[in-house]
Amino acid sequence: MTLSQVGAVEAADADPSAPAPPTADRSRRTAWITLGGILAALLALTALSLSVGAGEVGPGRVLDYLLDTGGARADSHLALVVGDLRLPRTLTALLVGAALGVAGAQLQAVTRNPLAETGLLGVNAGASLGVVLGIAVLGVQTSYGYLAFAFGGAVLASGLVLAIAGSRGGGSPMRLVLGGSAVGATFGGLTGVLIVNSPEAYDRYRVWVLGSLAGVEGWTTLGQLAPVLGVGFVVALLTTRPLSALALGDDLARGLGHRPGATRAAVALAVTLLTASAVALAGPISFLGLLAGFLARAAAGPRVGRLTLLAGLVGAAVLTGADVLARVVARPFEAPVSVIVALIGAPTLIAIVRSRKTAALGLTDTAPAESSGRSGHPEEKPPRPDVVIRRGALSVLLPRRSALAALGLAAALLAAVVVSAHAGQSELDLGSTFRAVLGYGDRLDVLLVQKFRLGRIVAGLAAGAALGLAGCLTQTLARNRLATPELLGVNDGATAAVLISVTATGAFGAWWAGPIGALVAVAVVTAVSGGLGARGYRVLVVGLAMSALASAIIQVAMARRSLSSASSLYVWTSGSLNGRDYEVAAPVLIGLAVLVPIALVVARRLAVLRFDDNVASSLGVDPGRVRLACLLLAVALAGLAVGVCGPVGFVALAAPVLAGRLAGPSRVPVLGSALVGAVLIVLADTLGRVLISGVEIPVGIVTTVLGGPFLLWVLLGRKGNPA
């Protein structure tokens, strides 16, 4: 079922005068049965939450307190455990879960994407930045201070997203999503800048970011944000009917008397209020909004009102159950609730997407391929013909524009290397730098440049080239400029493998762990989703689920380590070249020497995959073999890069886009992507070393901060067309 068909069904179902088809009664009965089951489960989980916890107060005593049997409320111990601890905590879990569920359903409806998540509006990133600012700059230490700064940061981020999305195009769903992604990336990078230079801020942040309801003590915290939650729920309720009309399209919605721009602004307001309050109360519990909306849609269909109600109930039930498990699985300690949510949600989401109910979710089997032609750019001149170089019986076809682009990128790379070798805290002039590179001059200068700077530069060149080439292969394979190896869980798998190797061996720097973890992650995702030939949405959903689970496990592993160990590992998980040298870069250079020629060989066949599989087969290309070869190449390259410098963001996304702009759309920019990736890493690392005197900003944080504006420039800058 397409999105337009879903909208038509919603409109017909919302009209009471329309005759109900025979399936409508069955759908309503199913919805009522589902609603009854969720309410029963929610009541049971609420009773369990009130009965489980510290204080050795069982269900009987809890019931006595609630009913005030025999003057039970006069018992100070019972009043403390039930009245001041369990009741506020249970009610907070119900409200926060409902808020995230409703916000997820609303965001999925307004963006017309069943995989939309509440973090798309930058709320989580804004809240995190607010908390870190409060800790690192103002020394905030109280839960009330965290709450205030988290809410303020969340509202600020959402306001920026609304301003970006509404500046051009009337706040379309695509602009809303892209604006949220860009703001979230930039705010996340700024958070990393503050954390990496403040061990105290990182120590508090790494606990808060896991999400927990343990800090809810008494009614004060909940009472401060209950009015905000109430306003968010009311606004969400008022937008259900306009959202049903909006599913028909903006023109039809206007014809029915609705205002699409105002509807989207109201939904954004509701999502902001609900999610910001939830993050302020319990921390950034990711994945729950996506899970609740997905489960509700699978159970109740696409009707917005029913979907919103069920999503709120599902969110409340899941978070309450996760909070109960968090209290009992690791007694006498508490497990992070975000990990419990991921452990519950990931298998559930995978089971649903593999079932036959996915047709009701509004998911299409394939994504439309991006056009590689020039119809959208009539002002661009046709490319000049390629140059043929002949030498006796041998001839080589040299693409003119691609060759010129490669030469220009090589020159830019040389300039970036020179700048990076020269830049630093020591006072070396340019002449001394060149002499030191060649081994002449002062002994200390030679040691500084050749031993430390050049080794680090070579490691950055290797990692950047690997990331750029991996991104090029992935984007061409998926026919989508937003596709990166991260979608297949490569970064999270490689990061988890490196952390496991650190725990097992006690030493850091095992480059081989990154490729192994990346291959394992991709193997799991492809196997669970049904193989390489699986439908695109299956791979995407399974990748999201596995990434959420891996990220939660990584955060727990970091939180359990000592502060000094966790701080150094956090720098690496942010993407860093600190301490990298020739020895670390050697495996990546060997891999590039082998894999780049292979990628150049398959580039021509890869270009054919831009068309339909039938067209590719008629041209003598086996799509399955080419996809497998490209996937293995991309995973190996990305895994090697993560093993060297950690999960550096946006390079795999930006390098192919920039290389394609330079080389033109007629060729797959394999070599150009590798060169651009190397330039980006070297320049970002140089900027991180010299931007703040005496402080080094990891290269991954620099690329993340700059990646948000780049994303907007690439995807929103073409005459208002976000596609």
Q: Calculate Rg over CA atoms.
A: 27 Å
| End-to-end CA span | 23 Å
* Physical arrangement of strands within the biggest beta sheet: 1-2
- The 3D shape can be described as globular
Mean pLDDT: 76
Main pleated sheet: 2 strands, antiparallel
Number of strands: 2
Helix residue percentage: over 70%
Secondary-structure element pattern, one letter each: HHHHHHHHHHHHHHHEEHHHHHHHHHHHHH
Assign the structural class, choosing from mainly alpha, mainly beta, alpha/beta, alpha+beta, or little secondary structure.
mainly alpha
Number of helices: 28
Strand content: under 5%
* Residue runs with pLDDT of under 50 for 5 or more positions: 1-22, 364-383, 719-723
Describe, in plain words, how this protein is organized in 3D.
This protein is mainly alpha-helical and 723 residues long. The protein has helices spanning 3-14, 22-51, 59-67, 76-111, 123-136, 143-167, 173-196, 199-208, 220-238, 240-246, 250-255, 260-282, 288-300, 304-328, 337-353, 400-422, 430-437, 443-478, 490-505, 513-529, 536-560, 563-573, 582-608, 613-618, 623-645, 651-663, 670-690, 699-716; strands at 387-391, 394-398. Helix 5 runs antiparallel to helix 8 (199-208). Residues 1-22, 364-383 and 719-723 have low confidence and may be disordered.
